[in-house]
Amino acid sequence: MIRRSLLLSAPVRITALLLVLVFAATGCHRGTKGKNADEGMPVEKLYEKGHKLMEGGNWSGAESSFKRLVAQYPYGPYTEQAMIESAYAQYKAGKNDDAVSSIDRFIRTYPTHRNIAYLYYLRGLANGNSDTVFLRRVWSLDSSRRDLSTPRQAYADFNIVTERYPNSRYAADARQRMIELRDVFAQHEMDNALYYARRGAWISAAGRATYLLETYPQSAFQNDAVALLGESYVHLGNKALADDARRVLALNEPGHPWLQGDWPKYPWIARKLNPFAGEKSAATGQRNARMNRK
Question: How far, in Å, CA of 250 to CA of 255, rounded?
């Protein structure tokens, strides 16, 4: 009996030994697999890897490499540049809120950095692009009909670039983008003014048109605002002010359709009943129609 028990215990010991070896091998494999390939990589190599990923348009991969660099090497010129390029990668990937957060963190940490003008410029790009990006792509919504809080922040960012860093390489483009944003804000006011006009609220329509002219002079919609002022004064029975508006408009845009009694025209009512038609600006539609006739 003793000999038989010893013989039977041998296979058991062999099986137990095999199980130990299997578990050990599995553990080693998992440890190797779980180890990040970038861990321990020299800072120069890690930065070069992230930069190459950016050049190839792999924004997510670049962001990951730059974040790994910052985690492993929290100080130094490579770290500062990696933080900047990580924010750019986030912006290019459409992660605008993340980009703005990264930029704000950098500005707080390095307020006098040599590339600080670029950071404000990039924040302007991200803020100007962050509002309902998906909806604009799918439904082609007019930019002036959106919430304008982030475009206004973008305008403030570009204004910082032009005022604090007028000689930077980003100042000229920032000025141009400010002009475009002012037109968006003016269009927003024009759409509101036309909304009131369509409903016969002529005092409110005149007030919006006046605000547009005072707040956004020389915008692309200034002549429309003058025309709407004239139309409002006609309906309010103020012939003198209506005639003044007509004279001003004739000097600045003699071909404006209001002078021929053919303005404003509103979108066809059936369009508003179609949920798939997209939201269009009455101001833009009328202005584009005039431009096409020229």
Answer: 8
pLDDT tens per residue across span 17-66: 555 454 444 444 444 444 566 778 999 999 999 999 999 999 999 999 99
Which token pair is 211?
Answer: 């605000």
Which pLDDT score, from 0 to 100, does residue 76 have? Answer: 94
- Which of 136, 127, 212, 218 shows the shortest CA–CA distance to 174? 127
**Residue of 93, 150, 154 whose CA lies nearest to 122:** 154
Residue 36 DSSP symbol? -
Q: Look at 1 and 282; give whichever has higher pLDDT.
A: 282
The structure tokens listed for 54 are 């950016």
DSSP code of residue 277: S
For residue 95, the surrounding DSSP H or E stretch is none
For the stretch 242-264, pLDDT in tens is 999 999 999 999 999 999 999 99
13, 102, 155, 198, 245 from 97: Cα distances, Å: 60, 9, 16, 37, 44
**Contact between 227 and 245 (Cβ < 8 Å):** yes
- In angstroms, the Cα distances linking 14 to 3, 4, 7, 8, 41 are 17, 16, 12, 11, 42
Phi/psi at 122 (nearest 5 deg)? -65, -35
Q: Helix H segments across the chain?
A: 2-34, 43-55, 59-72, 77-92, 96-109, 116-129, 133-139, 149-164, 171-198, 202-215, 222-236, 239-252, 269-272, 282-293
Q: For residues 174 and 100, what is the distance between their CA atoms, to the nearest angstrom?
A: 17
Cβ neighbors of 204 (< 8 A, separation 6 or more) are 193, 196
Look up residue 197 and give its two tokens. Answer: 């006009």
**What span, in angstroms and rounded, lies between the C-alpha atoms of 202 and 198?**
9
The residues near 234 (Cβ < 8 Å, ≥ 6 apart) are 242
